[in-house]
Request: fold
Amino acid sequence: MSIIQTHGLTKVFPGDIRAVDGIDFEVNAGEVFGFLGPNGAGKTTTIKMLNTLIQPTSGTAVVTGFDIRKNPAEVRKRIGYVGQDIGVDEYGTGRENLALYGHLYRLDSRTIKERIRELFDLVDLAGYEDKIVSTYSGGMRKRLDIAMGLIHRPELMFLDEPTVGLDPQTRVHIWDYIRDLAKAMGVTIFLTTHYMDEADQLCDRIGIIDLGKIMTMGTPAELKQSIHGDVVTLSPCAAKEDECQEFIRRTESALSGKPFVHGTQATNGQLAVYVDNGESAVPSIMRLLSDAGIEVKTISVSRPSLDDVFLKYTGRTIRAGEGKATTYAEIQRKRSRRPQ
Amino acid sequence: MNLIADTWFQVGRHIRTQVRMPVWIMINLIQPIIWLVLFTQVFKSLSQMPGLGGVSYLQFFAPGVVVMTVMFGSAWSGMGMLQDIDMGILSKMMATPVTRVSIILSRVIASMAVLLIQALIILTIAVIMGVDIATGVGGVLLTILLVCLLGLGFASFSNGLALLLRRPEPLIGIINFAALPMMFLSSTMMPADMLPGWLDTVRHFNPVDYAVVGVRGLVLEGYIWSDLWRSFAVLVAWAVAGTAFGTLMFRRRAE
Reply:
């Protein structure tokens, strides 16, 4: 049974920026579904349409059985939302934060009291109920933030980049809580992330989104299998940009048409070569390159990871744009470069 | 019913926030007291001037300080909204079934509640300093009603502007730009018949002046119903306009 079904969901921002470009997908009840993509891919815009914060320009979606355009009020009762910003009131205590949300979801006081106890246990904050939130650490705030989205026992929980800005240890903790709550409460989870390991660890199914379109979708295992064989990564001796480009161009032409090469993909001055069997391909590649007079600095063989999946479907590494705000102008430029 | 409950719980949150910043409340209280003391000292000799009609400047100025406190206090109401937008609290809240209007309504009501307590304290201090309230308790109640309406308008405009501008800098700019002139372009500090002609005309377009005239009448003279009705009519219109603007901006933001 699907808990989210989108139909040509589209959001166009002023300036004809198609942040989300007619996407169709389904999320099954009970699964942890991950939307994976770099900054500016359209992940947050999609979440904000599905949780009724913004209206789609065209298309629609049925979420928890209700149309987001015709019946947003019914959708809101059944979903929980944890945004990218930690939306907790710093001047209130943990209990006050949770209680306010309990009241906004129209729970009675006794239920709120019970759920507060239960949720503080779930997110491991027991004992901190009556401390002012400004004394909480970043990880504790995020956990409180997640608990606030659960007070009404939603059927579906949206988590927008739940671990962004947290230290590695805290990230792993948050993953545990997310896994626990999916299991313990039977909540369907829709999360977005630009961390490959996060998607790999948490998600039953993943959709890769870039430039407002879904590039591919499947279980992490399926996606990795969609890259046959191994990945051989070659890096040039050159350091300058144009020399790297030259290396990539010449290497690609030296390898083109060879039966054991499925494809190549350039990124960050390196070249990924997709082959059936990495170990046996390396000698052949070396021979071909030395015949063509191309010098290689390093060569490595790896099993495909979700990074490679991402690279294959979007033509860039997910890390490339990380930490840098993607402007709409950049998105537009990338889009115009991509063959239609 | 949902509207009332939603507003109630959020008012609780906002008042707690303010009470937990005692320094902020103290400053808001001390400032008008300083005005009350400083201005009455500086303008002490004005008491001999004919326009004041024989009352002390303190007696004349005290109603103005009450109005000023409410005006300045409520004008900053939108800053809290900005912080909620900035911290992601507003979007998180908008994804719940909360009645939309309660979000802005609760902010305005919470601002008013705190300001009214401040206004009462200032009135009390004024009385201790020797101000005589001609209309007694009834006058105090009407005073509260008048400044309530004025503050409602300012707080709503402030929240509406916060939603429109989305940044603290322009909001702070506008408040600083508007508040002082609104005080000077009124009979807050000078009796109306001592103001230059153009200023006497301009003050009729200033809601602050209607609040000052209303409150001053109650403190100095008694129930002057013709003035009071006009003050109430204008301030109700001001409050309605503010609320309409605030709600409109909120709808626009919420799409």
Notes: Residues 2-30+54-253 of chain B form one domain. Residues 112 and 151 of chain B are 7 Å apart (CA to CA). Chain B touches chain A through 24 residues (CB under 8 Å). The two ends of chain B are 24 Å apart (CA to CA).
